[in-house]
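Subject: for your reference before the review

Hello V.,

The reviewers asked for a structural picture of the protein, and I figured it would be easier to keep everything in one thread rather than splitting it across files. Below is the amino acid sequence we used in the manuscript, unchanged from the supplementary table.
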Amino acid sequence: MVFAVKFEFKASNNKAEYEALVLGMRMAQDAGASHLLAYSDSQLIVKQVNGEYEAKEESMVQYLQQIEELKTKFKSFQLHQISREKNIKAHSLSKLASALEDCKTRRITVKHLPQPRIPLDIHPISSNNND
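And here is what came back from the structure prediction:
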């Protein structure tokens, strides 16, 4: 499943990463997942969630508490860091959501068109020297 989320509130990059992780975990839980493997390009978030870094800011502590609670809903949970270059899809979706800031539409469907609806046959045009 692919989705984009538009925050209707101001959020730092770290808070946006945490919000996305919490939302993704809740969606996986609602879908009935028992094992969850998640990826993030945020070294700080990954290391805080995996217990390698301590969260000092109060809001980060609160996000970690939510994530710890959500982790108990899965038989296994893993969060791995990936490079920003490998996270192009998530980056593109976040840009899409931001670009649609003034758009009142709540749902956007992207259709993939594998081929044109009309044939693109190219026919040579004969020319004569009078034209």
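For the response letter, the relevant points are probably these. Helices lie at 13-30, 43-49, 58-71, 88-99. The two ends are 57 Å apart (CA to CA).

Happy to draft the paragraph if you're swamped.

O.
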